[in-house]
Amino acid sequence: MTGLDVAVLGFGLLMLAAAVAVVTTKQLVHAALWLVVSFAALAACYLLLTAEIVAWVQVLIYVGAIVVLLLFGIMLTRSPTGPSSDVDTRNRWPARTVALAVGALLASTAIGPFWSTYLPLSASSAGSAKVLGTALFRFWVLPFELLSLLLLAALVAAVVLTRAKTGRSDRPVLARSSSGRGPAIGAGRR
Amino acid sequence: MHLALAIALSAALFTVGVYGVLVRRNAILVLMSIELMLGAVNLNLVAFDLLHHDRLRSGQVLALFVIAIAAAELGLGLAIVLLVYRNHGTIAIDAVRDHADRDPATVDRAS
Amino acid sequence: MGRLHLRYDMMAVLTIGIRLAAVLTGFLVLPLLVGQLEHKAMAHMQARLGPMEAGRFHGWAQLVADGVKFVQKEHVLPDRADRAMFSLAPALALLPYLVILVVIPLGPSLLGVDLDAGLLFVLAAMGVSVLGAVMAGWASGNKYAQLGGMRSAAQLMAYELPLVLVAGSVAMAAGTLSLPGIVAAWSLWWLGWQGIGAVVFFTAGLAELHRPPFDMPVADSEIIMGPYTEYTGLRFAFFLLAEYAGIVVLCALTATLFLGGWRGPYEQQLGWLWMLLKTFALSFVVIWMRATYPRLRADQLQQLAWKVLVPLALIQTGRDRRGEGGGVRCGYLGPAWCTGC
Questions:
Q1: What ipTM score was computed for the predicted complex, to two decimals?
Q2: Contacts of C among chains (3+ CB pairs under 8 A)
Q3: Topology (CATH level 3) of domain B3-106
Q4: Is residue C17 in a domain?
């Protein structure tokens, strides 16, 4: 056990504890904030593994965009501030069994062959912007462009999905119609 | 550092994510659990990239791609969740059974 | 040999310690200076005296008096508030700015830490700070606060995109993500070349800080004080401090990325002075805008972001063409005019 091992283990345990809080807490907003803690610890692990760019991109995208989006979703679906009673299904034990089985399978297949493998982390520039950028735009240009198409498609799809139908746009936005199809706050076009 | 440590952490995080997907009823919480699983995958990708040190830097580049795709997936997922909420008044995933294979007369609309 | 190494390590630790202490001092002093500037400049712009009593000369001690007042006030924890989140939110809003100041260079070697991916780090930390406002809005258990939190979330999502896009444009132009590296690569004609980017960055940054005219989330005439409605005393002071620290960080970043940071006459000796002057000139613009423009409506805010700033940012990014020499060439002024790039 070197100092690096201890540090990775510490941040890893923090990450796991926060992740457990994400899947067990009764309050939706707390789950989103535990997700922030979990991903920050994960980013710290990346940093210790010298993957600097991945770490900062992780914080930028997850904390700056994804969690804010999730919080926005939580607020738009009018969740209560306090704990809600019906966040979990009743099949808690089956879920635990399946999850532990998956974990055991993963651990037994992946850890065994690499039990004594030691990661050489001497090359400190392995995750620097220069190395990663060169690889990305020399060898991965086509997947990168495809990814931009995918993001564009997702953007257009999200707009199309959330946009209210034009025929309903002049209804009062906050009032619920009798069919129970009242749009959420801010979802209709005003 | 030991590679087994990274793998063990990643497997454990994935386990937590699987549990969350299976046990959570609220669609947004399910999306969060999926993000946890993607994070576990990324940790593995980065660790093995540092082991192999190939010229393509495949592991780290793929981790970046996974992060980008996760953002797209979440944007779309939340759009669907909001649509479901607008149409049903709830985002409990076991209450949305419009396409369930059973007699239409007995379908209980959760709204 | 071992002793020598140990001494070297201790020197390194000591240097880092001194640097961090200097950054902390800057973090505590600069926002207060901006706050004082705001009091005085706005009073003059609006042709009123402002507080002139405290400290005899021109009311210089007003900020100290304000601080003392905030400390004396009672902490009020609303009944329906979420205790832990309510108390943590001010810290979450304030701390990222302290962390950002560590990587902003005052001079070629006058900075806390030179990060290889400093720009990415700064952008990531700025996003975290807004989370504090969203958290505060949610945790207060108050409708107005919650509306404010939602508005700041929507605003963050709209303005993060142009901010990151133009920051990417600068990074491409400089060929590095390190902040001192960007300043070293800067030259005067970037003012024209990256000019659009500078305006977009500054505007989007103002919107992320909820400064007027982008203060829809805290619009006092509609939703009282937005996410900060329920806050009192020292916690409220933390949010105020976060706002001014945010101004300092945004102005220092704009100066670093677009105005050449420490570059100027006698930059070897006076670099730090140029950087501070640029930062405070931009801070003055921030205050000036608060006194000049009326508040934008929510839909106007979104339209400004998506219909003006994002296209402008894309134009800016598209103008960074790659030249034959390997560096990025401006496709704007033409190769005959610019020889420096």
A1: 0.82
A2: A
A3: Helix Hairpins (1.10.287)
A4: yes
